[in-house]
Protein: Helix-turn-helix transcriptional regulator
Amino acid sequence: MPRRTITPDEFDYLRTVGLGERLRFFRKEIGKLHTSKAFTTTAMSERVGVSHQTIISIERGDSKKPAYQLIYKITQDLGIPFDALTDEFYQGEVRLIPIGEPIETATEISDEVPLSYIGSIVYQIFTDGMMRLIHDFQSSRPLDKEEFITTLGRIIGEYESCKNPDELFQQPHPMVKAATLFNEMDKHPKAFPVFPRSVWNDHQNSLIKKFEKKGED
Structure:
């Protein structure tokens, strides 16, 4: 049996434990289902580029706040969602995710994400509801999936640092938000349409030209 879905009882168990116990659960259960690669701490550590003691430390709970870059690599190796190790994933309704050896067909092809630049449009919003564009930033080189999510997470983190402390306690980590957003693009392509960059440039220039007379020199 190369692949299965976690059960409601397993989800309830994962809801009650911490990051380390969740990692141990997924590592052992996924290891039972795989025939192509091993999921011992040693085998996993070699693939993600850390010592096996690091993974053992996370599972035991000795490493309270492991780097999110490392957690991302671990979840990619396990083939589970990035946030499946976080508390936020287990809040609310039951989510039964598939685990185990993936079927080697179109799934593998769809996992190949092309390189892409990341950009950010910065604008100023006044308290009276008016706004103005300030700058359109873009990375100087294309990024792979991991780099894109990491960069997006840092951008989200900067914006969320402006929130009230009470709000921050209720928010998932910026990297979780970034990974979720990235994955949502594949799940709901109609909500994230792709269009030529030139079309956006024309639209932005037209918008600026329309209102430039109302601005100050």
